[in-house]
Structure formats: C-alpha cells, structure tokens
Amino acid sequence: MRIEVDDLTRPQVHALLEEHLANMYELSPPENVFALDLSKLRAPGITFWSVWDGEDLIGCGALKELSPTQGEIKSMRTPAAMRRRGAGRAVLEHILSVARERRYDRLSLETGSHPAFEPAHRLYRSVGFTECGPFGSYAEDPHSVFMTLELPKP
C-alpha cells in the first residue's frame, strides 16, 4: 500500500470522488452535503492523497488548513469494492502525521449522522476523535456529526 500526494488528474481518482459525492447525496439532504468536488479539492490550502495497492486505487483523503493551528479532514473515502483492506485507517494515520508535522493543535471533521456513517465514526473514535460542536463555518445540524482531536505539542 502506498500513499501519495495526488494532483487529481487520474481517471480512477475522478471516479472515486464521483462515487463519494453520489453516496453523500444518497445519505444526506443536498444542503447538508459538505463533500468537496474536484475543483474545490484543488483549492489552495488543501492537500489530497490517494492510496494505492499496485495499480488499484483503494482510498483517498484530504487535509484542509483552517488556520495555522487547525486542520480539517475532508474527502475520506474507500471504494465500496475495496473496503476492509486498511486503506481508511492508513490514510487517516497519514493525515494525522502530516497535521502533527504542521504543528496543528487541533484536527476536526464533519461527517454524516445517517447510520451508514457509523463505521467512519468508529474509525475516528479509535484514534481519539471525540464529538464536538460545529467549527469553522458549519452550523448545528441534525444531519452532521462534528468531531475533533487535540494534538499534543511535541
């Protein structure tokens, strides 16, 4: 398994992001879908990684800088056909490592409240994330779960 910074030009990555957005719109009302499309993932301040097993794309994730001390996890996804291989945990651990290198104090995320998001909730809790209130420009919403992780100072 290899994790690499991705320039978002490969068709496999486009297909995975399309799968991600389609699934988010299946599970949440349109006004509550905060997943980023391809153009928004290319914005300054966002680093996007893809996870590969040989030539197979098995996951992705992104880190958005909210401030010099806080980041937000975005676009964590494993293709439905490639789940249970450890790609989600691997990219999450990679994002945590980068956040520590950047000396962030806090890492936050927004995910859905639909029962289909429970495996993601468990994954985030397993590395220390806890539920919190909205952060950044988010507002309280029954379709969202907000989580945060305080990162220790080196």
Structure description:
The chain has 154 residues and is an alpha+beta fold. The chain has a domain at 2-108: Aminopeptidase, CATH 3.40.630.30. Helices cover 29% and strands 32% of the residues. The chain has helices at 11-27, 38-41, 87-101, 118-126, and strands spanning 2-5, 46-53, 56-67, 70-77, 106-112, 130-132, 144-150. The two termini are 28 Å apart.
Topology:
Elements: E1 2-5, H1 11-27, H2 38-41, E2 46-53, E3 56-67, E4 70-77, H3 87-101, E5 106-112, H4 118-126, E6 130-132, E7 144-150
Parallel strand pairs: 4-5
Antiparallel strand pairs: 1-2, 2-3, 3-4, 5-7, 6-7
Keywords: Acyltransferase, Transferase
GO molecular function: acyltransferase activity, transferring groups other than amino-acyl groups
Pfam family, one: Acetyltransf_1
**Could you tell me the mean pLDDT?**
92
CATH class of the domain at 2-108: Alpha Beta
CATH homology group of the domain at 2-108: Gcn5-related N-acetyltransferase (GNAT)
How far do the termini sit from each other?
28 Å
Structural class: alpha+beta
What percentage of amino acids are in beta strands? 25-35%
Largest sheet: 7 strands, mixed
Radius of gyration: 15 Å
Total strands: the figure is 7
CATH architecture of the domain at 2-108: 3-Layer(aba) Sandwich
- Cα shape: globular
Domain N-acetyltransferase: 3-152
Pfam family, one: Acetyltransf_1
InterPro entries: Acyl_CoA_acyltransferase, Bact_Acetyltransf, GNAT_dom
GO molecular function, one term: acyltransferase activity, transferring groups other than amino-acyl groups
